[in-house]
Design a protein that fits this description.
There is one protein chain. The chain has 175 residues and is α+β, with helices and mostly antiparallel strands. 21% of the residues lie in helices and 36% in strands. It has one domain.
């Protein structure tokens, strides 16, 4: 039974975290935590115009609606400053009993009409996370099992390091 539960947990993590190789079972920030940056709110599009991100502030967290030609998804995100780096704790909001809602760390840079973002999922941070915290490592994912305070401390130290991410994506504010 324990093995079956582990398989279900791993399958749920993979389904909920298709974009990132480092995910946390526990939130980084709790209810009422998180910063507000008005520059993040708005409609953002990839240069091709195929993908759109609608970012709203609820008064407590951000709601991000992602839309492409083939899918749309909604996420909840909380923002914090980690030693000069703006990080988001992002989690999907769909309610599905066969999926585990994991938390994905994303670094953001907002410069005028340009928003750049990167998943904190490089091989360097995957290895570091697994060596410093309780984690389950699979071939292509690292599921961090540590409590919220430990994850926040870890990301506060490692999340601002350029080695933590590899692919930076850019979207532009829609007119």
């Amino acid at each position: 039974m324990r093995q079956f539960s582990a398989v279900l947990l791993a399958a749920g993590v993979i389904l909920m975290s298709g974009c990132s190789k480092v995910v946390s079972l526990n939130p980084v920030l709790g209810e009422g935590e998180g910063a507000y940056d008005p520059a993040l709110v708005g409609v953002w599009q990839e240069p091709s115009g195929d993908d759109t991100f609608l970012v709203r502030w609820t008064g407590e967290h951000y709601t991000i609606r992602y839309s492409s030609k083939s899918q749309s998804m909604t996420f909840e995100a909380r923002l914090w400053d980690a030693n000069g780096a703006k990080l988001l704790d992002v989690t999907a909001t769909d309610d599905d009993p066969f999926r585990v809602a994991v938390h994905v760390p994303v670094r953001v840079w907002i410069e005028g009409a340009q928003l750049r973002f990167a998943f904190l999922d490089s091989d360097w941070i995957r290895s570091l996370a697994a060596s410093r915290m309780a984690a389950r490592v699979t071939e292509d994912r690292t599921l961090v099992l540590a409590d919220s305070a430990r994850v926040k401390t870890f990301l506060g130290e490692a999340g601002c390091d350029a080695r933590a991410y590899k692919d930076v994506q850019t979207v532009m504010r829609a007119q």
